């Protein structure tokens, strides 16, 4: 390559940690490649600018990816590092997710200065989260809790918690681990009670379709089981929605060549749950996700989605 390899990323501490991990792994994987030959370019996205209102109202998919994807398409960066969880299910034409790093811990953690565990929160306590999934799963177990919208990066949310804006919050264990902040977790939540978001805990790399040189450079970083399981989970999401306006959870594992997928759609207040699970050969991971997604869609019916959309609109107005 003529120029240094240019990695595009958002500027949050978590995004930067992930970009640095990709750089470190590239340097470790390729003899002759040194850190000064890999440049990290911070790109501000629309999502980063919207701090005053819930993202569910800001509209549009890919709020955290558009400017980074434009840089890929115009050739000013060679690869973009993302949290797979934040990636829209459909990418702009000409871009692909080429590489998935081995998945971190997929679970959510509960963080609170007021209680030793989620179930030990006092009656009527306030939860800060912007995630519809975490809201729904929390209310499912604790309908007495109050939920307030909590946005911003990991550090911002923790300072809101310390400032007393809520009694507790949730974060992805993966993010805390990558930031070396695992000690902040009060309790690691079970996969059963708090099924993760599709693709949680998996870092991915986006490149231009047909950029075989960059794809080959990244090949040593690719983790097959992560790619298969994230594919199944994202296919479930795509069959149902594709945005983040729906309380959806999904968790897949790969065992002996078969992908096992558990997934659910939950009403905003957690009282209605449509859950499915299935198994397929790993080559059919996407088809499995689609099949379960369509099964849930059929069970829930159009009225459920209309009510959900009205509920989300009311939540953010
Ligand atoms: N939506 C923000 C976001 N995107 C990815 C992660 C965590 C890291 C991951 O899932 O890989 C987070 C923060 C959180 O949910 O706590």
Topology record:
Blueprint: E1 5-9, H1 13-29, E2 38-42, H2 46-49, H3 55-58, H4 66-73, E3 79-83, E4 95-100, E5 108-111, E6 126-128, H5 132-141, E7 146-148, H6 154-162, E8 168-172, H7 173-178, E9 187-188, E10 203-208, H8 212-218, H9 224-240, E11 248-255, E12 258-266, E13 273-281, H10 285-316
Parallel strand pairs: 1-2, 1-3, 6-7, 6-8
Antiparallel strand pairs: 3-10, 4-10, 5-8, 5-9, 11-12, 12-13
Helix pairs in contact: 9-10
Give me some keywords for this one:
Porphobilinogen_deaminase_C, Porphobilinogen_deaminase_C_sf, 317 residues, HemC, EC 2.5.1.61, D-Maltodextrin-Binding Protein, domain 2, alpha/beta, 5-stranded mixed sheet, 22% strand, binds ligand PBG, Double Stranded RNA Binding Domain, hydroxymethylbilane synthase activity, 3 domains
CATH topology of the largest domain: D-Maltodextrin-Binding Protein, domain 2
Helix and strand succession? EHEHHHEEEEHEHEHEEHHEEEH
Low-confidence runs of at least 5 consecutive residues: none
* Most strands sheet: 5 strands, mixed
Q: What oligomeric state do these chains adopt? A: single chain
The count of domains is 3
Bound molecules: ligand PBG
Determine Rg (CA atoms, Å).
19 Å
Number of helices: 10
Number of strands: 13
CATH architecture heading of the largest domain: 3-Layer(aba) Sandwich
> How would the global form be characterised?
globular
Give the overall pLDDT as a whole number: 93
Estimate what percentage of residues fall within beta strands.
15-25%
CATH-defined superfamily of the largest domain: Periplasmic binding protein-like II
| Helix content class | 25-40%
* CATH class (first level) name of the largest domain: Alpha Beta
How do the strands of the widest beta sheet line up side by side?
Answer: 2-1-3-10-4
Structural class: alpha/beta
